[in-house]
Amino acid sequence: MNRIRRVGVVGCGVMGAGLAEVCARAGLDVLVAVSRPGREADGRRRLTGSLDNGLRKGKISEGDRDAALARVSFTADLSDFADRQFVIEAGPEQESVKLDVFATLDKVVVDENAILGSNTSSFPIVQLGRVTDRPGKVVGTHFFNPVTVLPLVELVGSVLTEDDTVDVAETFVTEVLGKQVVRTKDRSGFVVNALLIPYLLSAIRVYESGVASMADIDTAMKLGCAHPMGPFALSDLIGLDIVQAISESLYNEYREPHYSPPPLLSRMVSAGLLGKKSGRGFYDYPVREKVKVA
Ligand code: 3HC
After folding, report:
1. What confidence tens digit (pLDDT) does each residue in 240-257 have?
2. Does residue 178 sit in helix, strand or coil?
3. Which of 165, 184, 203 is the last residue of a domain?
4. Of 196, 201, 192, nearest to 282 (Cα)?
5. Ligand 1 pocket residue status of 195, Cβ below 6 Å
6. Identified catalytic residue from 142, 158, 249, 278
7. Distance between CA atoms of 282 and 294, rounded to whole angstroms?
8. Which structural domain range is residue 21 located in?
């Protein structure tokens, strides 16, 4: 396991930056791919902001923050990933983007034992594997937002993934990154989103039926069920575009009505009201929390 020292993270949005932070704090050499040249500084700013938050909260020392920052480099060119031993793709939930990234990684990553992981929340892992010549090394590594705080990783082997790949990935994620793994089959939503997304969609339907205000629905679930956040605040944290994308993927796979996106969600996504990352979703967020998606 100790052989994995050089990690690549594709994407530096909310999840990519969180993954980079967790890997850097575990002492790994981390290379982050941003979506285009010029976005490197945005990525570093996002990472620094989160590390500063950890420092303020007393989770890390100033020395830990500086050491973690020094372990992370940024690039806009995936061919720089040639020497990576474990790559986690955390790009947008768009089929064409993910397929392109995996086809490119397959060409550039030299080590034939390198593991190519995806943080996808709904896209079939087998399809990512099939655009490579090494589908046995492709695995789903699904982290949760905020990555620095939530301990779970869903580990997803497709019908083409080698058992050894899943075993090595599990040891890496648990022993090196300090997370807890649940293994799941390659089905849309895996475990968490198959249960969570219908709950979030139900909250929107309850609101649209006029039963209670958004704020009261959130308060009810926080105080009545001890959830850390209500469904509207949580949807804003995840991103409404992501909630919609997972909902569509679940609906396409299972055709069950409770997975279909309610009209309000679709209208908000069309309007660019994506939640915390865009500054407005079900709630408004202060300007300082608006960050460009890298
Ligand atoms: N490093 C380490 N720890 C950090 C940190 C950092 N960079 N930043 C914050 N923390 C710690 C804090 O110190 C605190 O820990 P403590 O309770 O031991 O003191 C903890 O994180 C909480 O942070 P805050 O005090 O800043 O914030 P809150 O107490 O308001 O909690 C929250 C915020 C963690 C987001 C909490 O409300 C929560 O857990 N909400 C639920 C989130 C959730 O369900 N996420 C899953 C979404 S689903 C998903 O991601 C899958 C996708 O596919 C859709």
Report:
1. 999 999 999 999 999 999
2. coil
3. 184
4. 201
5. no
6. 142
7. 23
8. 6-184
For residues 124 and 251, membership in a common domain is answered with no
Domain presence at residue 290: no
Q: What are phi and psi of 134, to 5 degrees?
A: -135, 55
- pLDDT for 286 equals 85
Summarised one tens digit per residue, pLDDT across range 207-253 is 999 999 999 999 999 999 999 999 999 999 999 999 999 999 999 99
If one counts the domains in the chain, the total is: 2
Do residues 135 and 126 touch, judged by C-beta distance below 8 A? yes
Token digits of residue 30: 């981390």
Q: Does 57 appear as a known binding residue?
A: yes
Residues 6+ apart with CB under 8 A from 10: 16, 32, 33, 78, 87, 88, 89, 90, 91, 101, 105
Q: Are residues 177 and 262 in the same domain?
A: no
What long-range pairs does 250-259 form, CB within 8 A, spacing at least 24?
250/122, 250/188, 250/189, 250/193, 250/194, 250/197, 250/198, 252/188, 253/187, 253/188, 253/189, 254/188, 258/198, 258/201, 258/202, 259/197, 259/198, 259/201
Contact 271, 278 (CB under 8 A): no
**Binding residue per annotation — 222?**
no
Residue 110 CA to ligand 1 centre (angstroms): 36
pTM of the model as a whole: 0.94
Nearest CA to ligand 1 atom 5: 54
Q: What is the reported pLDDT for 294?
A: 42
